[in-house]
Design a protein that fits this description.
Structural class: alpha+beta
CATH architecture: 2-Layer Sandwich
Shape: elongated
CATH class: Alpha Beta
Helix content: 25-40%
Strand order of the largest sheet: 2-1-6
Bound molecules: zinc ion
Number of domains: 1
Largest sheet: 3 strands, mixed
Distance between the termini: 27 Å
Number of strands: 6
Length: 151
């Protein structure tokens, strides 16, 4: 844990003081604890596929760096890590319309808010057909493990 804390501080300084990367480190830790459950000691992971919800604008570079750093410190060999983007789909609860919000059109501040709290999306998006803010996030949030191949 100590190593991770120091690495976070280091990364933050190098990345223009943005604090967002702490979240990627937390996600990387969650992935590693999942991987640990899946492998017996001494076995290696051939490939790990991670699905990233586009809504949360997870910084793939930071996540990848964090993940590889933690895996290395835990002595878990992973041959290949793949990332798959999962598109955002929203569905209006009032009229049933399904759509993909245009994330490029909201500002960076809003994207950052959604990055930490996906529920923040409810304040920024509304149904393009009926204007309702009562919608569900069908896909595109969070992070999930799509597949893990153990040797
Ligand atoms: Zn609607």
């Amino acid at each position: 844990m100590d190593i991770i804390d120091r690495a976070i501080a280091h990364t933050c300084i190098r990345s223009w003081g943005r604090s967002a990367m702490v979240h990627e480190w937390a996600l990387a830790e969650a992935i590693v604890s999942y991987v640990k459950q899946k492998i017996d000691h001494g076995r290696r992971v051939k490939s790990l596929r991670i699905r990233l919800g586009v809504l949360q604008s997870i910084d793939r570079e930071i996540l990848d760096f964090a993940l590889k750093t933690i895996l290395e410190s835990e002595n878990i060999p992973v041959e290949k890590v793949e990332y798959i983007d999962e598109d955002v789909r929203l569905r209006c609860r009032r009229c049933g319309y399904k759509w993909t919000p245009k994330l490029d059109e909201v500002g960076e501040q809003i994207r950052e808010a959604i990055h930490f709290v996906p529920e923040a999306a409810y304040s920024y998006f509304k149904c393009p057909r009926c204007g309702s803010r009562d919608f569900e996030i069908v896909s595109g949030r969070g992070l999930s493990i799509e597949g893990i191949e153990v040797e």
